């Protein structure tokens, strides 16, 4: 088996040798053997572990990648698969959310928002929070971010959310589930409020779809690297 130095592993990924040593320290790759003089000696097993770990980072993030590699180190294949399955489950939920947003766009932005009728009173903050299944504090945060602009009752100071506010809140809720920051959502809602302003929303949905596609492809690459590493260390056949 070929002996490798930290710099050999690092060079393949554009890392520093110290980064490789840190990954070993954190349990993301197996412990290295040491020469009599104390130098680390890595092998192809370590190289495969590093490839798998970095592919997992790109697909799932550092925390999940570390969790997977620790499970591999413990020899627990079921735990490895459980973590990976959770990642795919989340991706599936995100895709379903994107589909729900796309299906809602026509309803939310397809035409002028009707004025509330006499029989359709504005929502209170509690009523709107209940409708969206969020907390009133969340709606106040959205107001602070410029996403919502409810009127205030002059006598009581209570917020009143009319039909346009409800539309904006529903749109914010859907985009928030897509992972967008409040500043971005505020810009999108502002565009939707103006005539012909759905372009920003369409661009957001396309960007969201691209990010989900990239994540799915990264998961495929991570699965291939992880499968090869598991076979190399004898955890699967």
Which key terms come to mind for this protein?
237 residues, mainly alpha, Multidrug-efflux Transporter Regulator, Chain: A, Domain 2, 2 domains, two-stranded antiparallel sheet, 10 helices, 66% helix
Q: Give the strand tally.
A: 4
Percent helix, as a range, is 55-70%
Q: Order of helices and strands, N to C?
A: HHEEHHHHHEEHHH
* CATH architecture label of the largest domain: Orthogonal Bundle
Instruction: State which percent range the strand residues make up.
Output: under 5%
Description:
With 237 residues, the chain is mainly alpha-helical. The chain folds into two domains: 6-89 and 217-232, Orthogonal Bundle (Multidrug-efflux Transporter Regulator, Chain: A, Domain 2), CATH 1.10.1660; 111-197, Multidrug-efflux Transporter Regulator, Chain: A, Domain 2. Helix content is 66%, strand content 3%. It contains ten helices and four strands. The protein has helices spanning 6-13, 17-25, 44-60, 62-73, 77-109, 125-132, 136-144, 163-177, 182-193, 199-232; strands at 33-34, 40-41, 151-152, 159-160. Strands 1-2 form a two-stranded antiparallel sheet. A two-stranded antiparallel ribbon has the order 3-4. A hairpin with a 5-residue loop joins strand 1 (33-34) and strand 2 (40-41). The longest helix has 34 residues, at 199-232. It is elongated and about 80 Å long.
What layout of secondary structure does this protein have?
Layout (H helix, E strand, L loop, with lengths): L5 H8 L3 H9 L7 E2 L5 E2 L2 H17 L1 H12 L3 H33 L15 H8 L3 H9 L6 E2 L6 E2 L2 H15 L4 H12 L5 H34 L5
Antiparallel strand pairs: 1-2, 3-4
Helix pairs in contact: 1-2, 3-4, 3-10, 4-5, 5-8, 5-10, 8-9, 9-10
